[in-house]
Design a protein that fits this description.
Number of domains: 2
Strand order of the largest sheet: 1-2
Strand content: under 5%
Order of helices and strands: EEHHH
Helix content: 25-40%
Oligomer: single chain
Structural class: mainly alpha
Distance between the termini: 46 Å
Shape: flat
Largest sheet: 2 strands, antiparallel
Number of strands: 2
Number of helices: 3
Length: 99
């Protein structure tokens, strides 16, 4: 539950009925923690891995040459369905971009 009680300063997004509630980083959550504290707890500082974290390979496999033609891209683009893309693109947008 997002805390705040009566008289809080949360603003509803969008017009009309329904919709979410915008929260501030300083808003208190149900457990007394602020939104910002909860997010910082979920996203700790980056760490530097030790050398022991990496494997040492004596033999490195050869790279396989891959040839992707326009026909390959067209075949795949025609089969895309639903949420197929990155950056908010759906299958139709991505197909139009590729074709």
């Amino acid at each position: 539950m997002w805390g705040g009680g009566g008289g809080n300063n949360k603003k509803k997004r969008g017009g009309g009925g329904g919709g979410g509630v915008a929260v501030s980083p300083d808003d208190a959550m149900g457990d007394g923690q602020t939104v910002q504290d909860a997010l910082l707890e979920k996203h700790p500082e980056d760490g530097i891995p030790s050398a022991a974290s990496f494997q040492d390979f004596k033999v490195i496999p050869l790279f396989v040459t891959v040839t992707i033609t326009a026909n390959h891209v067209e075949d795949v683009a025609k089969k895309l369905r639903g949420l197929a893309g990155f950056g908010g693109l759906d299958a139709n947008n991505l197909s139009q971009l590729l074709l």
